[in-house]
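[Meeting: bench + compute handoff]

Bench side (C.D.) handed over the final construct sequence. Compute side (W.E.) agreed to return the predicted structure before the next meeting so the bench team could plan truncations. Sequence as handed over:
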Amino acid sequence: MKIRFLLPVLAVVYLAIPYLWGGNNYVMSLLVAAFIIAGVALAWALLANLGGMVSFGHSAFFGVGAYLSALLCINYRLPVLAGILMGGIGAAVASIAMLPALRLRGPYFALAVLAYANIFKILAMEFKGITEGAAGVTNIPALPTVMGFDFSSKLGTYLVIVTIVLLFTGSYHLIRVSHYGAALKAMHDSEDATRVVGVNSTLLKAMMLFVSAFMTGVVGAVNAHYINFIDPDYAFDLGWTLLPMVAVVFGGYRTLMGPLVGAVGIFMLDQLVFKALIGTGHQIMLGAVLAVMVLFSPDGLVPLIGDKWKRIRRAQA
């Protein structure tokens, strides 16, 4: 992202939003939830766009990150921030179990990863001595207080998750413009051709899987310390895959900002507008908006806005 666009974004997320709504716990809680979805959406888009793999199983990484961080902090007194990092690392390690699925393509890979997610959920249910089973893990330590500022507050958690999401966005950008990104782009055009010239496509896919799993695990860990409770049904819920997928499709998964704009925009629209209009079943309106977007702008909202802006600039020139 160019500096002229980056600086206004940073000003909005770090200055304008805390100034306007920092004291409104309801709005801040919505923003925290939106950016948690945005973090998973970004990780999902990285795997789908760069890795060329559509996943139905990101809830596995989310749950592993949440459980590992929570249990390490409770049982071994690990500092919360270190626990969050370990949650991401643990999710990346857990993704090694999914490496055999890299031989599959298209819907077969997506369904295989979904099966792995269900396996992790069952393991969390059955290993009661470690995970407490269906009862869940309670009293998860909250985010710490640093130099008198309480990061466990709504505003504090918002600043933490926004910072993490922006760091992941920068990492996504660096990977995309690197020679790895060029190789992945070539692999999408013709995987067999890239193998002929010596590109290890399986290794590249595995790297994208590890990075995506790490990102999702970190976000899952932050969420666990934010709500202070997790159970298998919540931590491994399929919604942690489906909601980010909807956000990515809405915003535009081939763009850097599409997953973030899609997640924050569609979540806030659903909670503040659709929910006010239709208290029960407001997801119907969300589905209608998504259908309209897919029909009229399959590339997503961000490319649509970009095209409109270019036309306006050309008309003014």
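W.E. noted at the follow-up: The chain has a mean pLDDT of 89. C.D. will use this when planning the next construct.
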